[in-house]
Amino acid sequence: MNQTGISQEKILEELSERLNKDLTYESGKILGSMCTTPHELAKKVMTMYLEKNLGDPGLFKGTQEIEIETIKMLGTLLNNPKSWGYIVSGGTEGNIVAMRIARNIGRAKGKRGTPQVIVPVSAHASFDKAADLLNLRLIRIGLDQEYRVKTSEVKKAITEKTIAIVGIAGTTSLGTIDPIEELSDIALENNLYLHVDAAFGGMVIPFLERLGYKLPKFDFRNQGVNSITIDPHKMGLAPIPAGGILLKDRRYILKNCFEIPYLAGGTYAHPIILGTRSGATILATWATLKRLGTEGYTKIVKNCMNITNQLAQGLEKIENIELAAKPVINIVGITSKILDICQIDQELRKQNWALGKFTNLLRAVIMPHVKPQHIQQFLTDLQQVTKKLQQN
Ligand code: 0PR
User: Fold this and answer.
1) 260-288 pLDDT, tens per residue?
2) Number of Cβ within a 10 Å radius of residue 293
3) Is the CB of residue 344 less than 8 Å from the CB of residue 386?
4) Separation of alpha carbons 288 and 277, rounded Å
5) What is the 174 CA–ligand 1 centroid distance (Å)?
6) Helices (H), ranges, the chain
7) Does 90 sit in the ligand 1 pocket, CB within 6 Å?
8) Residue of 172, 349, 361 to mutate, ligand 1, most atoms within 8 A of C-beta
9) Mean pLDDT of 174-200
10) Distances from the Cα of 368 to the Cαs of 30, 112, 143, 283, in angstroms?
11) Is residue 89 in contact with ligand 1, taking CB distance under 6 Å?
12) Of 44, 140, 194, 364, which has fewest CB within 10 angstroms of its CB?
């Protein structure tokens, strides 16, 4: 650290200069991210209330009330206004919290040995983190031709040590939706906990349904669903960090708190991972949900889907490029039978295009910052890249 303080002007100048290296959402070059520029009101609210700390909710009762209201809004979106939960740091924390609760319920049922959790192979890395932290064993199940978990295999994988099943509504690589209705039946038949990871899809699918898309029921309409991860800091346009974890039954939360008697809000608290946590991000999430309403989000999602279709149609016209799957939501998998995906990615990166690279595909996420002109330019550049690679 420097001994004498530096002027604010100089510091801001240095930051502005050094952050020139970062890609920006406005440039349209970030095509592989599930995050975007927060809503203008979210930015404003966030900076107004930076000191709010919901690690000690008794000190910030107004903020806590607003968190409860935010969860109610998300719960209503997921068809259970009575669900309880928290705004957490992201989908990773949401999934870890759900896995911890599921493990503890399994223990209470008298299950012994290393607890097993059945997950699709498409599950996000946060489940590996949860398994490592909570001493769980993941049993990975393959996908069908439409990249959804094979429910017949899920059934076969259940053992006495199984404590939970995970389904995904909007997978990380392709945005597909697992057959949650079937998973719900399996969970009920076997008295198992069912968690749905809708970290991305949770703020997309309900609005697609309003637009008339026929999609699998992924939420609390299914009796067997115990918890859902839904992240405002992805398609919700809230500032980072704003994930969401919602539980069907408040008792799950009450039984999984820790004893922290010195907190102003009561003796038992923190059924989540963080202690000190941002209240500002919650207030900003609440403000954004209120400002946009279901109509506002539906409009945004409609626009993203139009651009998704523009990209998908454009890709089909490029020689040696294929869609990995027909897009279900605003995520597009790009692949090729002949060209090397890694080489395509490298060439695109030279032109600053940033997509997500998976083993056999490049992922484009059509977030609200992606505009039709960006897609047009991307398709032109991709076509040139494929021509160049074919010649080599
Ligand atoms: N569940 C699903 C289905 C996800 O796709 C993700 C993250 C998570 C959980 C975890 O969420 P957090 O990252 O909020 O903890 N999906 C993105 C991914 O891994 C995250 C991301 C966002 C990656 C922006 C890159 C990026 O630029 O692809």
Assistant:
1) 988 877 778 899 999 999 999 999 999 99
2) 11
3) yes
4) 19
5) 12
6) 8-18, 40-48, 61-77, 91-108, 126-134, 151-157, 180-189, 205-210, 250-254, 280-316, 341-350, 372-391
7) yes
8) 172
9) 98
10) 11, 47, 29, 21
11) no
12) 44
Q: Which CATH class is domain 40-290?
A: alpha beta
Computed from CA positions of residues 385, 387, 388, 390, in that sequence, does the dihedral angle turn out positive or negative? positive
Q: How remote is the CA of residue 207 from the centroid of ligand 1, in Å?
A: 20
Complete DSSP assignment for 1-39: --SSPPPHHHHHHHHHHHGGGS--TTTT-B-S-S--PPP
For the chain, the structural domain boundaries read 8-38+293-391, 40-290
| Residue to probe by mutation, ligand 1, list 124, 273, 353, most atoms within 8 Å of CB | 124
The alpha carbon of 171 and the centre of ligand 1 are apart by a number of angstroms equal to 10
The superfamily (CATH) of domain 8-38+293-391 is Aspartate Aminotransferase, domain 1 (3.90.1150.10)
34 CB near ligand 1 (under 6 Å): yes
Under 8 Å between Cβ of 339 and 314 = no
pLDDT digits (tens, 9 = 90+) for 313-340: 999 999 999 999 999 999 999 999 999 9
Q: Which atom of ligand 1 is nearest to the CA of 32?
A: 27
Cα(346) to centroid of ligand 1, in Å?
Answer: 22
Mean pLDDT of the chain: 97
Average pLDDT over residues 157-161: 98
> Which of 33, 34, 178 for mutating ligand 1's site (highest number of atoms within 8 Å of CB)?
34
* pLDDT higher than 80, residue 100: yes
Please write the tens of the pLDDT for every residue from 195-251: 999 999 999 999 999 999 999 999 999 999 999 999 999 999 999 999 999 999 888
Instruction: Find all residues with CB under 8 Å of 369, minimum gap 6, and list them.
Output: 25, 26, 28, 30, 36, 37
Q: Is 188 left (phi over 0), alpha (psi -120 to 50) or beta?
A: alpha
| Ligand 1 neighbour 197 (Cβ under 6 A) | yes
Please tell me whether the peptide bond between 239 and the residue prior to it is cis, using omega within 30 degrees of 0.
no
Q: Which residue has tokens 């959790």?
A: 117
Name, in order, each residue with C-beta under 8 angstroms of 20's C-beta and a sequence gap of 6 or more.
none
Amino acid at 32: G
Atom 11 in ligand 1: residue holding the nearest Cα: 91
